[in-house]
Amino acid sequence: SNYETIITSVEDGIALIQLNRPRVLNAINRPMVTELLDAFEGFDRNDEVKAIVLTGNQRAFAAGADIDEMKEDDSVSLELLNQFKEWDRLATIKKPIIGAVNGYCFGGGFELALCADILFAAENAQFGFPEIKLGVMPGAGGTVKLTKLMGQKKALEWLWLGDPMTADEALQYGVINRVIAPELVLEEAKKYARIVASRAPLSTRLIKETVYKSIDYSTYEGMQFERKNFYLLFSSQDQKEGMKAFVEKRPAEFKGK
Ligand code: HXC
């Protein structure tokens, strides 16, 4: 790949995006956000790709946004920069994103990890929002997402302390999906991605869309939205194939159409 801050590849229908600024524990600078967006949107358009795995290295997923880059910012420069436009576009990726976290996962790094649909973490992973120790607070959804995941009391407790939580704590609070031995995290994430990739792709994306809508919708609105997507899938070839294969007692061959 032609990127400077990330490394990308595709194997067996699974795309891999690896954060690659190891000297600064994968601190996320603005070029990295731009490159991440380019990679995610490219893979989302690429028919060969069925799922995307996002990872860092053994020492760090990412230790936060790049503090060197931010330290002289002011409110007006940040407003004019409008960097969160790119973070917002991350939320429009339709394919499944599986995050594999080793080591530090702090601040903007934690927020990036929370952009993954499924999160696997190493036993030694550490998650936290240390922004409070820098005189700021999360800015890319951390406050909001942590509250929705763990509830307001727990979220406030962690956000006010700014100290790291262990992978086991993150699991207990519903922030991540699985805790895995450090050397196996990426493999397990890829394995999970391959299973999801074998399911009906249109179902995968409409389920993702419906789950996220249900966070903001009322139960009634959510169920109306679900029903439309359920009906929509009956226009797909894969619905015919999936049900025919069941009747014929053979594995379905999904085309994503
Ligand atoms: C820039 C960083 C960095 C960061 C680490 N480094 N985190 N550089 N931005 N967020 C750099 C260090 O300066 C150092 O560079 C090198 O990476 C190795 O880090 P050390 O501190 O020497 O490693 P260690 O002692 O193991 O400590 C690890 C650590 C610590 C506990 C993770 O680095 C740390 O506290 N980092 C900052 C964490 C943080 O505050 N994150 C939130 C950022 S604010 P040199 O050149 O000295 O070797 C944020 C807001 C998001 O994310 C807003 C929305 C996007």
Automatic annotation (TrEMBL):
Signal peptide start-end: none
Xref: SUPFAM superfamilies: ClpP/crotonase
Domain of life: Bacteria
Pfam family, one: ECH_1
Sequence similarity: Belongs to the enoyl-CoA hydratase/isomerase family.
Gene Ontology molecular function terms on file: hydro-lyase activity
Protein name: Enoyl-CoA hydratase
GO biological process annotation, one example: fatty acid beta-oxidation
Alphabetically ordered keywords of this record: Lyase
Lyase listed as a keyword: yes
